């Protein structure tokens, strides 16, 4: 079957410019977007099995949409100068690969793509459109798919339906209602994606909807439609793709041609893309037709990359019970059999490969499988990265070569495809044996492995973010930063860069002569938080203001600015979770790091309020209450704590009474606050010095409080002594589920390092057990929700956030609370605080 690949040239380049790291030539010309485009072309032309190919560009200028609506695209910002300078190089890149470039004055690239795609489909071609443009999703059919090269995901009829709630043929109707702010397409004010999906799903088309407005029961929705009928009709025409562009090129003109390696090398050298030169030579130097690479592989059987041999490989795999699947890069998948045969294939995957992934009788061995799970259903798998992590969580398994060195005790050779296959099978056997040896197979299979698939779903789903709320917070933080800056300058009678530790140190200790100066190895004054907090404790206002300034600066640099950049086209934020970052089993998140958003400050709440539910939906929060205190009461068998939790008494009031020697009914809010600090500080193995700083009291007073606490809850002292001794003899501590948390410095000769390890030893079994419990709860909750619309969106420490439609929210919330509180049985009850609201800040 002929296969036409159509590349949305500028569509990719614009996204690459804003997504990929900056890159400049020696002459200063920015070429990052060109590099990304070149790299993408190289993968497509070498790895994609197509018979025809073309890059399609916008020619600029006006088209029929401007005639319909002069304000079309009127509000688009100017194209950055650094990007404009790259446009000619993008066209040169296409020429270097001998790929035809198509454009036509008066027509957009989307229209040319639409025309070619429809013509090719009529001639029984398979068509892949390399783009993520939502307008092009109108074209998706059984034989026309899209491929997003930056997210490395296929967009087929299924994905379009998931995004818009309607079949591709009705996407135009939905887009007409939603409008498009970036193109200045008006749509119908007040109707968003969910409303548009419901209306088109109910009435079938925009035309039928407008003929039946009397049947709309929602008063505001009906009013919005009646007031915007002309805008809806106009928008319907503006989002239409012209499938009859009078292009001169015929499909036969787009037959893929041999790559001229010399021309390509000259282009790569001219633009200083040196890392691509060797790959280009490897791919195209000895090929007969320049379109695919032949694998050479020592003892392993040769199977080249042509489609007929892929089918041959899949036939062999169907008779096996184990298979390696390894993502070589974001566009290429390595498949290998234990008998030695292997092959590489590119995304989108053929049905024969998909069938292998779906086959539960074939166990798939992989490394970092989560990203694959976002786009493919893979039944029966094992992830070597997670297996390695469970074996030893102190070793971060983010590199296959390092894992080979650690677990196979040998230097990893150059990891060619056949070597990867061999080592992946070998690693699986070794890691399985090690999990059995340390009695952690159950932890891996019951706690960690189910979470992989769930995290993939959560990352793909994301959570809706209100840009308006983030902008409000950003403006408020900027105002606060300016006020604090003025106050700091007034305190020291000088202007300086507050963000510079060197300048700050000179102001505090040279100019103002404040006490407590100490120097770092670099010779500059230390101005870390510990130093500033000590000064603030002594009453120096400037230190307090600098601490506040740093907090607002961090909120701006870590959250408000990045959050605005991380929101994707669907209006949702898609954080990335890692299972292999902490020694205790706790999940971490990045882009953005949701774990560090302040909970108790009003500034943190402003950021949390920007995380919102979709229209008409609600967010459900379930947060384990005092789980770490409950766990230490259970693990250390602290009678007083257990009784308090069983009778639902205020644990902090009880501690205040015990430690500060006052009757329960005389405990003040201030004493309760101090007792709460003590309760949680003990779990983290705090020293008298550390507690003194937190409570702003003398060190000897802090030591007395700790002694009284340990006397009141004497089982805690026994627990601390036990875990210290156990860790010193074994090198690790364990959680309730048997997870080994390795404490590598517990026997260090350096007192400071050893002291830190001892504090970690106290907390790791508690925090690790909490991490295991919430992972079990996540899995059980997800299984329960399989027949509901409610979905798990986020996990942040001891809290789970769900999104739920109105007809499910309250009932589902009670069931989820029950799941969380009963997922494990302790000697005291677990409790999950439940709240429902429209944004995270309300919860």
Shape: globular
Distance between the termini: 54 Å
Could you give the order of strands across the largest sheet? 3-2-1-4-5-6
Strand content: 5-15%
Given as residue ranges, the uncertain stretches (5+ residues, pLDDT < 50) are 287-308
Give the tally of β-strands: 22
Protein described:
With 843 residues, the chain is α/β, with parallel strands linked by helices. The model is unreliable at 287-308 (pLDDT under 50). Helix 21 crosses helix 34 (751-784) and helix 22 (467-492) runs antiparallel to helix 25 (541-566). 40% of the residues are buried. The two termini are 54 Å apart. A hairpin with a 2-residue loop joins strand 7 (322-329) and strand 8.
Summarize the structure.
With 843 residues, this protein is an alpha/beta fold. It has 35 helices and 22 strands.
Strands, helices and their partners?
Layout: E1 3-8, H1 9-19, H2 32-47, E2 52-56, H3 64-68, H4 81-84, H5 87-96, E3 101-102, H6 109-122, E4 126-130, E5 144-148, E6 153-155, H7 157-164, H8 171-178, H9 193-203, H10 206-211, H11 219-227, H12 229-238, H13 261-270, H14 274-284, H15 307-317, E7 322-329, E8 332-337, E9 342-346, H16 351-358, E10 363-366, H17 370-373, E11 381-383, H18 384-391, H19 400-408, H20 417-437, H21 441-461, E12 463-465, H22 467-492, H23 501-511, H24 529-537, H25 541-566, E13 572-573, E14 576-578, E15 588-590, H26 602-608, E16 611-612, E17 618-624, H27 627-635, H28 639-646, H29 651-660, H30 669-683, H31 688-695, H32 699-712, H33 714-730, E18 732-734, E19 740-742, H34 751-784, E20 791-796, E21 799-804, H35 809-822, E22 832-837
Parallel strand pairs: 1-2, 1-4, 2-3, 4-5, 7-10, 10-11
Antiparallel strand pairs: 5-6, 7-8, 8-9, 12-13, 12-16, 14-15, 17-21, 17-22, 18-19, 20-21
Helix pairs in contact: 1-2, 2-5, 8-9, 8-12, 13-14, 18-20, 19-20, 21-34, 22-25, 24-25, 27-28, 27-34, 29-30, 29-32, 31-32, 32-33
